[in-house]
Amino acid sequence: MSTVNLSAKTTAFVALGSVAIAGLALPATAQTAEFTDVGSSYWARPFIETLAAEQIIAGFPDGTFRPDQPVTRAQFAAIVRNAFNQPRSRTAPRFSDVSNSYWANAAIADAYGQGFLSGYPNGAFQPEQQIPRVQALVALANGLNYNPQGSLNQVLSVYRDAGQIPSYGEGPVAAATENRLVVNYPNVDTLQPQRTATRADVAAFIYQALVAQGRMPALQAGQSANSYIVGATATPGTGTGSTTSPRLVPSGTGLAVRYPNSNADVDIVVAPGQTVATSLQITEPIRNGQGQVLVPAGSTVVGRIVPVEIRGASITAAKFVADNLTVNGRTYTINAESSAIAATNRVNSGTLQGALITGAAQSILTSITGNSGLGSVIGAVITGDSQVTSNSAVVVIRPSDLDLTLRSDLTVDAIATN
Asked: Is 289 in the same domain as 230?
């Protein structure tokens, strides 16, 4: 490889990734994932080092990364080519300022064909022009087919300088925000759309785009870089050709549950009108469209058994309403509930074997079964609000039979590791 004469421009590209010259794939000049000018406290270190380890970006021969150096449109095209493999939807024109021998000619053609970048009305590409942050985000949103799902004004309101976003960039930036591609340093609420994108900025954007595709893990909790990732208030968006954000558990998803730490079904018996707080455990992992686990088995659902009023009917019922879901130590507020379960006065000792029964329900069961020795049958007496209706019936809930269903979308912060 040492016999190949690299121009200064080609060397600059090699420092960003790999390049093909005369049909040969040349490795990046620096393969290390650690750089002398990217210290342990540098804000973009986890983005830079992970991408370098995957040989998506690279440093310079002197062991530096030069994170604050600006990125040109040609260099951005080269990085995009190295990071993504989107299908081509169009054929690149012959740009007036990109010759066949230009070092990034193939990368520019690919970036154009995949929808990441476009030329200018005069037929030029302006490869040496430094790319603003807004153009880099627009390029990623367009190339990855992300479209905004929420109100533009609502999504973009997270930025104090939203008024500086050009009109052509509002939709793509909103889509990038919904999919958590945007990383703002030093102030997470300030986009600085017209500022030239640095190598650190681009590394952060590219990393987050790979996370959104499910190809990279989200940063670990506790890393300071997380504080610069913009989390939109709107529901994460979807792109054309995809059904959901990789971290979105959509409304209507069923949650398979059981009583915690129990291999067998354990029934919960309450009196009509009672409210009982309880925890349940996820038994089947919830996966996204790529098969990645979003909510692993063993995650905890905390909620309440609450009375249900069935209008126009004399029967009483209850349902389980979930309030929180804990995934890998992170707790989320969720909106999920089961269908109503009607009270019954047909209960046998087999149903009650090992069950969890409230004190109020135990009194009712004594009158139903005529068995005053239920204490030797039930698993435990649990507590609940004592405001119960006068009724010779109880509500028997078997958690594994609950049709517990999300009533609104849930977004988790990371793809689970199991």
From this structure: no
